[in-house]
Amino acid sequence: MPFKIDYLDGDVVEWTLTEDGVERERNSSYTPTVFVSTHGGRDLTDLYATLREHPHVVYATEAEERIGFRHDPEPVLRVDVDSLDAVTSLAHEISGWGQPGDYRLYNVDFSREFRYCLEQGLSATPSRKPTVLELAIDEEVLASGEPREIIVDGELLTGEPGVVLPELARTVDAEDPDVLMLNTSEIVPVLYRAADRLGLEEFQLGRLPEWQQLAADSTYASYGQVGHSPARYNVPGRAIIDRSNTFFWSQSNLDGCLYLIEQSGKPLQELAWASIGNILTAIQIREARQRGVLVPWHSWRHEQFKTMRQLHEADRGGFTFAPDVGVHEDVHELDFSSLYPNIIVTRNVSPEKIRCACHAGRDDVPGLDYCICDERGYLPDVLEPLISDRDAIKQELRSTDDPERVAELEGRSSAIKWILVSCFGYQGFSNAKFGRIECHEAINAFAREILLDTKEMLEAHGWRVVHGIVDSVWVTPVDGEEQTPFDELAEAISGDVGIRLEHEAHYDWVAFVPMRNSEAGALTKYFGKVDGDDDYKFRGIECRQRSTPQFIEEAQKDLIAALDEHRDVKAVCERLKRWLQKLQTGDVDVEDLVVKNRVSKPLDEYTQSTRNVAALERAENRGLSRSPGQDVEYVVVDDSKQSSDRVALASEGLDEYDADFYRTQLLRAAESVLSPLGWREGEIEQYLGEHKDVSLQAF
Predict the structure, then answer these.
(1) Which of 273, 447, 543, 546 has its CA 20 to 30 A from that of 358?
(2) 3-class SS at 363?
(3) What is the CA radius of gyration of the chain?
(4) Best CA proximity match to 415, nearest among 254, 614, 655
(5) Are residues 257 and 134 in the same domain?
(6) pTM confidence score
(7) What are the residues whose beta carbons fall under 8 Å from the beta carbon of 536, sequence distance 6 or more?
């Protein structure tokens, strides 16, 4: 059960954790495998004759495989390639022969460690919990290339690089960690290059000498957002995890990652940098291979013919009830447990089963006239164990008070949650290995029907729906009507739907926020006070936005507390005065005013002199490059300027800020709190102008 796979000097090295440390085993005979199917009248025999002479082909033979879930086994060509590096180039070469689609390739674009475990039938789950050593280097120190300060597990190593690097190497050797947790992956090349300059030949971070660059940094776009993927590096025998590039570790913990390793077959290092879709795909790939199905390099799925009515009905998302703007008392939030994944499981929504030929003409999907095969699909088999595991985890969490066990369970639950969240959207993703747009449409159709039926049943039992979105509804009791208790009602709805409806929360009150330039309710902006608790729930407003400075976040939360305490608009405005006064008198720690924004494009492509541009210019002048998708952090010091002096970087050690700029930001945050009560920024400004004296309510 190797936890790390290294490709070194043409061999594969398996690293297995033991109770005493680690063992390694070298495999010199491994060759990666791809498959090719022929179409358009092309012949496998001719392809075999060509490939057997190819310099990168070690072995080629005919095999019987399924090229898709809707296909029976058929002849394909199995091709063993002489090296991992040659797989992609050979695949491109073959796919370029003949007309497009004549030669289709499979099992091509697997990540290196995952490929080895999959083809060798190995589990990547460690036999014990890996040990972790954390290393961090300040950005400006890193940019200098002279590592004079390194934080090792919270302890500072400082001095000349010729002293610091040997001390670091001794620490790593003594601790012998399985995982190196880095604040940025650039630590690896910077340290090794510094060691080379100094002639420190014995310096190493891995369990063997040398290091490798696995991938260069890159920029990508996803759902309209620009992201940045840092360069990835490797050292033998230890997993490298980059804190700036690890979704699952940051959203769960080591226990969550270990759970997903078991489910996906991806070793820890690859899992740490992988996206949600990447892990979901790996889980699906393992299921496909167990069923004898090859994994297409490029999707060849066509969308089946639809009538105009079907196109109209299918082109809709999940159902939403417009929120009733305002403050509502005694509100209950009800959620369907993992609604979309459970729809997939309970309705057998799977790419190879929807609109099957054997049940054509049957109307199984509401409003779309799609049929779904009675035979169990692969996607429900992928998701059902995850749903069951998360249900069991949530059940255990309700009964345990052991902090270590709670942390372990919460990490696993969070990791599963993200996979379940993505499984629906991934069906409509054009590059999904096994997705199908009809699945995406069917899931939405089922969800719309479920939410509408739920609304009707709730209203028939004395409850008024004040908001609903996709899988959640918020209800209040109707005055003068008798309400059916939630436990009875939830049980009845769950039985009808076949998916558990849960009572998520009870609020003393909830405020639904209108859109900034409209009286209509914003679907995902609300806040409220949890019943019988001192906690508040915030969604979508400034204090939940990653770009919001800490000072604005704290102020907005305090204004909400004032609203809860006084239930009076003017009392909130009086509390607002206190925060404004702190700004105007300079009584705010500049570190609490840092704005964090994501860079959307290279500096030279910006045409307007924005604050982001000013921050990028300052970063460039200090040798701190920023790529699209990365964050830039700054404080606004003079918003009237258009030059780089408009802002200062968070790392510059500031003592000034533009109070007027932050006043505007604070008023916007206050508007989010008061707009459910009908007060916009204009009314707030008018009140502040008319009432100069601070009343006792502000305190």
Answers:
(1) 447
(2) coil
(3) 29
(4) 254
(5) yes
(6) 0.89
(7) 527, 528, 529, 530, 557, 560, 561, 564
